[in-house]
Amino acid sequence: MSMTERSGRWIRPDRHPKNATYRCICLPHAGGSTALFAQWKHSIGDDIDVSSVQYPGRAGHPFRNDLPATMTAWVGEIIEELLTTLNSPFLLFGHSLGGGACL
Question: What is the pLDDT of residues 32-87, one digit of tens each?
């Protein structure tokens, strides 16, 4: 069984190898979307489960009125969602704004 079977409010699963032992959660730059990491599934090993964070208003993620007011609150929501799905070693990869969120 994969590490997560569904999308949450922020996290979108990209691939779920059955034998994955690690999870990579990717956060794109401010203007980016999960599409930035779509090709990773073709070049990353089957021991890594790849998921990415989809920002509001990007690539089909609806812009909502109930968005967090600060980056701290937004990162807190992402962490809360991650804690419900993490059951293996993981790493965070962030590009630009995503890198700041990972810190």
Answer: 888 888 888 778 888 888 888 887 766 665 566 677 888 899 889 889 988 887 88
Model pTM score = 0.77
Residue 71: φ, ψ to 5°: -65, -40
Q: Do residues 48 and 41 touch, judged by C-beta distance below 8 A?
A: no
Residue with tokens 């489960």: 49
Q: Give the 3-state secondary structure of residue 88.
A: coil
- Write out the E strands in the chain: 11-15, 22-27, 48-53, 90-94
User: Phi and psi at residue 39, in whole multiples of 5°?
Assistant: -80, -10
Query: H or E stretch including 78?
Result: helix 71-83
How far, in Å, CA of 1 to CA of 59, rounded?
Answer: 27
* Count of other CB atoms within 10 angstroms of residue 86: 14
**Bridge partner list, 22:** 48
